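2024-03-11 09:14:02 INFO receiving multi-entity request
2024-03-11 09:14:02 INFO entity count = two
2024-03-11 09:14:03 INFO echoing inputs for audit
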Amino acid sequence: MAAGIKDKVAIIGMGCTRFGERWDKGADGLMVEAFTEALADAGIESARIGAAWVGNALDDINVGNSALPAAHALRLDRVPVTRVENMCATGTEALRGAAYAVASGAVDIALAVGVEKLKDTGYAGLPLRTKGVQNDLWMPYGSAPGTFAQLAGAYAARHNIDSSDLKRAMAHVSWKSHQNGAKSPKAHLRKAIDIEKILSAPLIADPLGLFDCCGVSDGAAAAIVTTPEIARELGIDNPVTIKAVQLSASNGNEMQYGDWDGSSVPNTQAAAQRAYAEAGISDPKADIDVTEVHDCFSITELVIMEDLGLSDAGRAPADILDGRYDADGDIPCQLDGGLKCFGHPVGASGLRMAYEVYNQLLERAGDRQRANVELGLTHNLGGAPFNSVAAVAILGRKD
Amino acid sequence: MGTWIKSIGGYLPYLRLDRKVAARELAWTGLSMPGKGLRAVASWDEDPLTLAAEASRTLIGKAPPAAVRFASTSAYFTDRSQAAMMIDALAFPRSTRSADAANSRRAATTALLDALLASSGEVIAAADKREVQPGNPSQLAFGDGAAAVRTGQAGCAELVGYASLTHDFIDRYASQEHPTSYAYEERFVRDTAVGEILLPTIKAACDMAGVTPEDIAHVALAEPASGCWAACARALQSNAPNHCATVTENAGDLGAAHPLYGFGLALAAAQPGEMVLLVGFGSGADAMVFRVDEEVPGASTMVQALGKGQRLTNISRFLSLTGGIDIDWGMRAEFNQKAQATVLERIGRDTIGFIGGRDSQGNVQFPKSDIPVNPSLHTPETLEDVRLADESAQIVSITADRLNFTPDPPFDFGLVQFTNGARVLMEMVDRPVTGFEVGQDVRMHLRIKSKNSSLGFRTYFWKAAPLDRPALGDA
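2024-03-11 09:21:47 INFO inference complete, emitting structure
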């Protein structure tokens, strides 16, 4: 395996808008909001940005295609700006681009910014779009909850778990995120709700009810990255560093070949294993202190816990119900409310996850702060369980 | 050289409207409409092409037919051959001749007679899903369905006599400006049809066959009005049952497919040596007399199909499926797919025929790709065609999606694993009352994949349905 970028890249500033129904701002304004906070956090002027990676997934309802509208909005002065898109993993993809540029030595200080303006689509959920003129001839037009709901039946079948028991564990996932979201000032949904309300909600895609599904939001998040050496020159002696950032993409096997039973997301497993190796982590259950994972749906988070190796196979429902991933549990998950409650502006979510872990590492998380956070993990998942892009990043302090 | 029926097939949609429920719902109007029996109701993603393709599936045989003839009064495309599309859907070679017959309920019997006289071995498929208007008796009297026949130079039932009569008699009509059926007074229709058209045609066919009407054991006569066969039978001194009446009662008047579906029931009931009379009506009549020598493959399945399906008792759902109401499905329904002719030329045959590919190590996949999905192969190769439409398969994962737009919610879809190794993400149709399950056996059916109403275009692909249907029962 390649040497990787462990501790070669420092995050010196981050910003994140309030997520939600941001009727007041367009995608350009949201980017400016996140970027301005990140610049202030880093203590630098925008002229120091040597290159930028801009992530948004749905160009037709955002600033438009290419990187140019973002370069305009942020008034970046003729530096290289690249637009990236990798479905819901876009935010981490932007961070990966910026981090690799710094690690390679090509750029001293780079910007990663992710944005999405979903509330300009008019849709209650994600908008419906073509899958390409060739795929349109045969591929079903399932919704996002429709694709992820299929994890549930397959998981129950594989582990011989009663569907009502699984549903209760899924409800706990959402309950926990609502509890956390209530303490998260920038979250979209800030109301704690009880388990029975979650269980009795109307079905969106069997067996996912309304509260098994994450919020669809507007928002932006940004990170400014540089080398640890430059960070020190800027007065940041012990910066947050990237321990690992890895991505895995389906090659079609889950959809077209093999014995995958639909109960897991193989790309999460692959990205996690590579990230652990890059970060030098041999026991993630012991070493990872906090996680922000891609809980687009409650069943997704449940399965992710096993795919990341934090729960043993078939044990995630029990671990969840035991409170292992609650705010006061062994490995808290979604301390900021996660996609479920902080919200899910697609292109921004990966960077929003990093924002929470970054703040936890710097002990700036307010009411949500956990003690002694040394390593945090983000997991960002795009597509569907049977055709996905999974990104795993691990952040820590260099010293 | 004789001309024969080799096999026959039929297809009825899954849903059957209970007419008495509908009649009760519309009783306040005071309008007269059928109140007994069932009406076969096509799904939103079925049209005459898909119905006909389903009816023809059992007729594919080992060798392709010389021609496919498609007959319908409600075919979707008016300048695109449905017969040509059927040839691709059934994966027949492009050397198969194609012909489309339309503009008369008699189109199917005319096509059948022409095929029998050509004596070349053909598939004749008929289907209708006619537009209806609430309040008009045809809304409940009509049904959606299909039937198909394979002819040959040898077979199970031989054509021994025939006659045709052309008469521009307007019992009912539909036109571009009046696409729903406009019917004239029933007694006028019955008296004129029987006296001027049916009796002379039937007698001529019997004369040619060298039999008397009393020799006919079973009849399949598509009646333009109820009581036509009873009047004919009195005049002909025949006691033979009209099997088309059974179709009318249990599925509805199937339009162009009606005489052929009734023919299937008549063949199923006939004993070796018995005579069967087939009569198609519309702007005249075709009458054919067959001597049944042995059981005709497919006929008994058509009898069974009448008794299987799911009762439809929700009137607004029925109205939505038959175009009686135009539901505002919200923003998600605004999305239109635009199919490109260039793409259809490249992979259209593989999608409508459900043709996957087998790689050099034997693995089957859909769709084909230059570099196979098989992880042990890494370079481009040419895959061998493998038709998946008739392969056994099971559900790997499934959901009932209530967010995604479909004209008949919920939208069931998931991964399907074929026994030959192929794995495809598919839509599910003919939803059981209890829904679909992981591990469930499924069978493939040709359906409409997408409709683009603004461009007047449809695409077609295969969807998975349970292997069998439940009995309709008496409820």
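2024-03-11 09:21:48 INFO post-check: Residues 334-466 of chain B form one domain.
2024-03-11 09:21:48 INFO post-check: Chain B touches chain A through 51 residues (CB under 8 Å).
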